[in-house]
Automatic annotation (TrEMBL):
Major role in the synthesis of nucleoside triphosphates other than ATP. The ATP gamma phosphate is transferred to the NDP beta phosphate via a ping-pong mechanism, using a phosphorylated active-site intermediate. Belongs to the NDK family. Its EC number is 2.7.4.6. GO terms for biological process: CTP biosynthetic process; GTP biosynthetic process; response to hydrogen peroxide; UTP biosynthetic process. This is Nucleoside diphosphate kinase. The chain holds residues 62 to 230 of 230 of the full protein. GO terms for molecular function: ATP binding; nucleoside diphosphate kinase activity. It comes from Actinidia rufa. It comes from the Eukaryota.
């Protein structure tokens, strides 16, 4: 028979299904691809310990860019933003992890790269809001929405990284 719950030993294996795992859509924008920053940007999220579940180089059609940024439709910079996002290939990524949405926003830094802290992607690698090299979902809900928007079924890979028990107790 099992010992009373409070006396039971904590399992020494990490059980990720017991934690709330978020999903974030991260994208290297066309300037990041043209400037050869793809590896550097992927590396920041990979080293932090998040799990990559989707990755592709992709030429974004205008309709998709407009849908992705639909909340900004009334902004004066909207047409320029759509031209920018569709001006060349982007790298689409789906990342998973506990707290990944909020953490990725911190790793990315402020929208205006001149206000982004050194050490963040935009703080280290960009100078202008209109060329801020990377996108990251702003809420877990938008993370799910954007991954569904940018990836087709079969493009997302569920897997268990070998490092998990060395990353979380
Ligand atoms: P974030 O990407 O940091 O979540 P927003 O959702 O406010 O920022 O804006 C989406 C994107 O629109 C920005 O990353 C940037 O590429 C572009 N953008 C925002 N504000 C401006 C602006 N004033 N001028 C030009 N582009 C802008």
């Amino acid at each position: 028979p099992l010992a009373p719950r409070k006396n039971r030993k904590k399992p020494h294996i990490f059980l990720p299904h017991l934690e709330k795992v978020d999903k974030s859509y991260i994208m290297v924008k066309p300037d990041g691809v043209q400037r050869g920053l793809v590896g550097e940007i992927i590396s920041r999220f990979e080293k932090k310990g998040f799990k990559l579940t989707g990755l592709k180089l992709f030429q974004c059609p205008k309709e998709l860019a407009e849908e992705h940024y639909k909340d900004l439709k009334s902004k004066p910079f909207f047409p320029k933003l759509i031209d920018y996002i569709t001006s060349g290939p982007v790298v689409c990524m789906a990342w998973e992890g506990v707290g990944v949405v909020a953490s990725a926003r911190k790793l990315i830094g402020a929208t205006n790269p001149l206000q982004a802290e050194p050490g963040t992607i935009r703080g280290d690698l960009a100078v202008q809001t209109g060329r801020n090299v990377v996108h990251g979902s702003d809420s877990p809900e938008n993370g799910e929405r954007e991954i569904a928007l940018w990836f087709k079924e079969g493009e997302i890979c569920e897997w268990s990284p070998a490092q998990t028990p060395w990353l979380m107790e």
